[in-house]
């Protein structure tokens, strides 16, 4: 009996050790720049999307339970909270300074009037919505779905325009800064470029892993994607890929270009909620930002490049001021 109790005890210690190691990996315990602001408990069960307003004075966030929040930058004061969606928010885009476009996994697409805090309009599509984009050049909303469909709707009337079938789940969408080209990644590891009529322009060189999030460079010459352990860059003239290794220990779930285009911020997810500011050309790490307690979900630069905002499954949103001297610290009270 004593030997059985000893074995059980050893198993408990082994489980505790593995759990502690997992949390350590998820948080990133090496010296890094702490957040200037940590806003806890923003969304029950975690943050799923972030989007700065065009002016950078506000940031919108979406949560796992379908709720939206509007926060001031940089003090984090909440000025609005809305519940237009039933499932996790999978898309969040500022149309302009007054209107916010959002989409939930249940298929609802909503437009919020920020000043009044009211729901301007809402469209019910079908369940399995994974991603959202806005083609400003032609005022079209684009939605991708788990069934492989890609649909466009007019804004603000929500009239259907195009539907195409890609044959595999749509993972991520991105629109160039002219609002005329659409990038799409799929579950079967394709990355495609479309024009505003959803005519395929180019199939980019196939990556070795699924592209989890897509972003165009500020000059629209490159497309970048996060993947497991790596970041992919495509030259949009040749369609050729270059691969950059990262310090992340799992999936690079979210990333964003600095407005100048010379830097990239990356956020890990599985066993790694670390943030890394890297040189976009070389991949050299310029700053390590303290990670979240639980897996990362979304990261964005402010329009002026001063702040990085990140959100996580730990329900927090964090702001990091990149104009401050880089003074990495061990994990402390901010973790």
UniProtKB/TrEMBL annotation:
Name assigned to this protein: DDB1- and CUL4-associated factor 12 beta-propeller domain-containing protein
Keyword Signal found: yes
Signal peptide (UniProt feature, chain positions): 1-27
UniProt xrefs under InterPro entries: Beta-prop_DCAF12, WD40/YVTN_repeat-like_dom_sf, WD40_repeat_dom_sf, WD40_rpt
Gene3D superfamilies: YVTN repeat-like/Quinoprotein amine dehydrogenase
PROSITE patterns, A to Z: PROKAR_LIPOPROTEIN, WD_REPEATS_2, WD_REPEATS_REGION
The DDB1- and CUL4-associated factor 12 beta-propeller domain, residue ranges: 42-269
């Amino acid at each position: 009996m004593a030997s059985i109790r000893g074995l059980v005890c050893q198993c408990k210690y082994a489980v505790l050790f593995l759990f502690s190691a997992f949390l350590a990996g998820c948080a990133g315990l090496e010296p890094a720049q702490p957040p200037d602001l940590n806003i806890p408990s923003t969304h029950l069960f975690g943050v799923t999307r972030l989007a700065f307003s065009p002016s950078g004075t506000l940031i919108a966030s979406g949560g796992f339970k379908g709720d939206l929040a509007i926060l001031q930058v940089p003090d984090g004061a909440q000025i609005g909270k809305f519940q237009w969606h039933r499932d996790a928010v999978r898309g969040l885009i500022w149309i302009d300074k007054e209107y916010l476009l959002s989409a939930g996994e249940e298929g609802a697409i909503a437009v919020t009037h920020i000043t009044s805090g009211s729901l301007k309009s809402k469209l019910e599509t079908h369940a399995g919505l994974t991603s959202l984009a806005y083609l400003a050049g032609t005022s079209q909303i684009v939605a991708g779905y788990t069934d492989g469909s890609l649909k466009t709707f007019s804004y603000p009337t929500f009239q259907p325009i195009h539907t195409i079938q890609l044959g595999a789940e749509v993972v991520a969408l991105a629109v160039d800064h002219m609002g005329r080209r659409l990038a799409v990644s799929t579950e079967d590891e394709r990355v495609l470029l479309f024009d505003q009529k959803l005519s395929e322009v180019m199939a980019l060189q196939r990556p070795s892993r699924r592209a989890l999030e897509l972003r165009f460079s500020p000059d629209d010459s490159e497309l970048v994607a996060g993947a497991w352990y790596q970041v992919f860059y495509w030259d949009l003239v040749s369609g050729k890929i270059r691969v950059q290794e990262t310090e992340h220990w799992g999936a690079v779930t979210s990333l964003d270009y600095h407005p100048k285009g010379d830097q990239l911020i990356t956020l890990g997810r599985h066993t790694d909620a670390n943030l890394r500011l890297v040189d976009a050309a070389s991949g050299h790490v310029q700053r390590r930002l303290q990670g979240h307690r639980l897996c990362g979900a979304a990261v964005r630069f402010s329009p002026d490049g001063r702040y990085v905002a990140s959100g996580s499954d730990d329900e927090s949103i964090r702001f990091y001021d990149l104009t401050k001297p880089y003074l990495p610290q061990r994990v402390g009270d901010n973790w």
